[in-house]
C-alpha cells in the first residue's frame, strides 16, 4: 500500500481506496462526499454505496463501470482478494479487507461502534495492518448513547410547545439515524424535512429502512406568519442561518454532532440545544476496536493522528500517520451552502 497524491493505492491490485480525484479503478468505502468522489472509470462498492453515489453524482459521474459487492462476498483483482464488511458508519458503509500473499490489511474507512438501526453494525476483522480514522481521537470525546440525546430533544419539545425545534444534521446517515432513534423513543408524529434531506431519506426507505411519516416544511399561509410550533424539523447544519428558517415558529436551534461535546463549538455556532450524536467512533471505541483487531501496526488518517499514535505506542502498537490529503476534519462530509428554494 502506498500513499499517492490521489490517495491510498494498492500497488499489486492496481486500485485506489476512496481516492480524492478520478482514477482508473476505485474501491469506495461509503457514500459521503469526502470519500466518494466523481469521475472514476470503474468503481467497486456495496450496492447501497453505489446507489448513493448515483443519486448524488448522477449516472455519468458515479463511475463509468460500477461493480456491486455485498458484505462478505470477495473478488480477486491481480491476485489481491477484496472483501467488504460492515463499518457501521452509514447505510452501505464498508471496511475494505485486502488479502495478498498471506497478509491482511483492513482499511476501515469511517466507522462507529454504537448501535444504529439504519445500517449494519461494525464487524472487527483480525489483521496485520489496520487503517483507522481519528476524527474524535482525543480522550475528551466520549459519546453518550444516541437514545439518551433523543430523550433530551423530546424533553425540550415538551418544555417549549410553542416553538419549533430545528435540528441540524447531515443529509446522509445522521438524518436517518435521528429519525429512527426518535421512532424508537416513541415519537410517532410526522417529522418535517428541509428539501435537502428528502431524497436520501427516500433512498434509505427503498433499501428497507422504515422512517415513518415524513413531511416537507410548509410555507406560511401569509407573509410574516410562522409554522410548525411544537414540531421537529431536520435540516442541513447551515439552514439555521438561512432565511429559510424564518418560516419556523421561534425555532430552538439544535445540532447533532460529536463536536457538540466541545461547549465552545456549540456556543460559537449559537446552538441552543447541542446533541452529542456522532457517526464516528469516540476515543474509547477507537482503542477498543484496535485492541479487538489485534493488528501490530496501525495506520491513522484524517483526524487527531498524533494523540492516537501516542496512545498506541504505550500499548506496544506501531502507529503511522498517513496524512492523506483532502479529508474533511468536520464530522461526516463537506457541505454545500443551503439555498432557500431547496425547501420548496
CATH superfamily grouping of the largest domain = Ribonuclease Z/Hydroxyacylglutathione hydrolase-like
Poorly predicted spans: 325-330, 332-344
The shape is globular
Strands in their spatial order, largest beta sheet: 7-8-9-10-11-18-19
Mean pLDDT score = 93
The proportion of residues in beta strands is 15-25%
Quickly count the helices: 7
Q: What can be said about the biggest beta sheet? A: 7 strands, mixed
Structural class: alpha/beta
Distance between the termini: 47 Å
CATH class of the largest domain: Alpha Beta
**Rounded radius of gyration (Å):** 20 Å
Could you give the count of β-strands? 19
Any idea what the CATH architecture of the largest domain is? Answer: 4-Layer Sandwich
Give the SSE string. Answer: EEEEEHEEEEEEHEHEHEEEHEHEHE
Q: Quickly count the domains.
A: 2
CATH topology of the largest domain: Metallo-beta-lactamase, Chain A
Query: Fraction of residues in helices?
Result: 10-25%
EC number: 3.1.-.-
GO molecular function: exonuclease activity; ligase activity; RNA endonuclease activity
Protein name: Ligase-associated DNA damage response exonuclease
Organism: Teichococcus wenyumeiae
Description:
- By secondary structure, this protein is of the alpha/beta class.
- It has two domains: 2-140 and 279-339, Ribonuclease Z/Hydroxyacylglutathione hydrolase-like (Metallo-beta-lactamase, Chain A, 4-Layer Sandwich); 146-277, Rossmann fold.
- It has helices spanning 47-57, 146-159, 174-184, 195-206, 263-268, 283-293, 305-313; strands spanning 2-4, 7-10, 15-17, 25-27, 42-45, 65-68, 74-77, 80-86, 94-100, 103-107, 129-134, 165-168, 191-193, 214-216, 232-235, 252-256, 273-275, 297-303, 318-321.
- The strands form three sheets. The protein has a seven-stranded mixed beta sheet with strand order 7-8-9-10-11-18-19, covered by helices on one side.
- Helix 4 (195-206) links the parallel strand 13 (191-193) and strand 14.
- Helix 2 crosses helix 3 (174-184).
- The longest helix is centred in the middle third of the chain and has 14 residues, at 146-159.
- The chain starts with a strand and ends in a 23-residue tail after the last strand.
